[in-house]
Amino acid sequence: MDLTLHQMEIFAAVARTRSFTRAADELVLSQPVVSRTIGEMERKLRTPLFVRTTRSVDLTEAGVEFLGVATHVLTSYRRGLDRFAGYQAGERRQITVGVLPSIAAVVLPTVLSGYLEAYPGVQVRLADGTNAEILDLLRDGTADLAITEVGPASADFAVDPFLDDPFVAVLPPGHPLAGPSTLTWADLAAEPFIEFSPDSSIRRLADLGLAQAGVLPLRHLETRTVATAGGMIAAGLGVSAMPELVLPLLAATPVITRPLAEPVITRRIAVHRRADEPCPLAVRRLVERLLA
């Protein structure tokens, strides 16, 4: 079946206004054209889309389902045209960047300082969250790019790695393991281990380090945020492992850190972009500064 964008716009207008006449007025079309278009769509789809009475026009069950399809198609089409217009103009008024909190706090300030000085007409909006959350923002078009860990979900995007972030052990003040200059993951096995929630970008790699070391530490506490984990560690409730770049978020927390080896676990940070869409010039300029 071949349906045009114009037909979908007419269908969406009728669904929104619940009236062939009001939809025709809104679209500056004649009412017979609107009625004929809906009839043609129903023949192609082989199902009624509306229940018509003398007093009302209501969506059928199939009409409700098709409205979701039409809304998605029209939204993607308009968003794509907006992105292309920005690409042709060479600038965009606003760029949305999905980013891990640690990267937003530690890496981006310096990069954005130079970028916004060079391109003052661009407004950058940061949307921080977990790895899955920010990739979802990129996937649905809310974000123009995502700065996050390279992981299994990265296969859906164009990926440019630019930073390796090694894991370190995080210990309470005065902890016996603070003596050696470097610790192994096995050293953490006998300690209460404060882990991150499964949706955290840290959890997958911490689990990998422990698994490769063949150890299973005591797990009593779980949190989603670095600040909460730092507070728990400082209070002597356990130890943990975190990427080095999150440590500035613990600057006000009295904890001790040591490099972790056997194995060395590194979080690879990359710029993620939708591979099937043109990259506007303003977005491309920001990516170039990140990669540099």
From TrEMBL:
Q: What is this protein called?
A: LysR family transcriptional regulator
Q: Which InterPro entries match?
A: HTH-type_LysR_regulators (IPR050950), LysR_HTH_N (IPR000847), LysR_subst-bd (IPR005119), WH-like_DNA-bd_sf (IPR036388), WH_DNA-bd_sf (IPR036390)
Q: Where is the HTH lysR-type domain?
A: 3-60
Query: What is the similarity comment for this entry?
Result: Belongs to the LysR transcriptional regulatory family.
**The organism sits in which domain of life?**
Bacteria
Instruction: Write down the Pfam families for this protein, in alphabetical order.
Output: HTH_1, LysR_substrate
| Natural source organism | Kutzneria chonburiensis
| Classification via SUPFAM superfamilies | Periplasmic binding protein-like II, Winged helix' DNA-binding domain
Q: Which UniProt keywords apply?
A: DNA-binding, Transcription, Transcription regulation
